[in-house]
């Protein structure tokens, strides 16, 4: 079913899935974790309610912003790495519809430059993220490749992967570059998370690569959790930071490229973002898994 935008204007997404599931309209009604992240890493695709929520979280847990920036720098490095021509990826599926801000040119522009004609599908549950992916990234495409935005609950990937619309745009019989942001650490039920990850692994062809990011419990887990949950107010998202070793157990069926699933500050550091001297304060981990 196609989506519709307020006032009858064209929606910022190509397709909406969900059978009864709908994000708030207007999107300013509740803060959104992706837009809060965007604010904390210096982006502009956020509302005042997101900025207020992020500032509240920072007030109670000052290291939250540092973790976001460490995660941001990791995402840039990881996406740049998987886009290397030697990996042969020319189709990218982003769950979370996050557009990194630190890279210049953009990571997606870099991917396009290295892989002319690459195809991108961004899956989000947020109208602003969808609009950014559709308008800004399409403008950067300069006639090369395609950019599509899908509005759906990406934390339940099975219906998305099975949808004919997606399969017309992403050939799952060929390798895919997949990014998971705001997914693993926003699914409280570990059985549900395991099923989601198993489904993704089974659906992807050999040679596919998955960029995974997960917020961790900080030095004071109760304070950080309280801050984030309070800042999200009545938002239904299940913010669930976990200890690093628990996350590693949850992803133990995946094969990770060197250096594995580690704190983001330790993943192939190149001088961008918070350094390893701040590792203890950067409660976010990530890694790149490869499907054999």
How many strand segments?
9
Average pLDDT, to the nearest integer? 80
Secondary-structure content class: alpha/beta
Strand percentage: 5-15%
Which radius of gyration do the C-alpha atoms yield? Answer: 18 Å
- Treating each run of at least 4 consecutive H or I residues as one helix, how many helices? 10
Question: Can you describe what's shown?
Answer:
The protein has 292 residues and is an alpha/beta fold. Helix content is 37%, strand content 14%. The protein is built from ten helices and nine strands. The protein has helices spanning 33-40, 48-60, 63-82, 107-114, 127-141, 157-162, 164-169, 190-203, 221-232, 244-250, and strands spanning 15-16, 91-95, 119-124, 146-151, 177-180, 209-215, 255-256, 262-263, 284-290. Strands 1, 2, 3, 4, 5, 6, 7, 8 and 9 form a nine-stranded mixed sheet that branches. Helix 5 links the parallel strand 3 (119-124) and strand 4 (146-151). The chain is globular, with a radius of gyration of 18 Å.
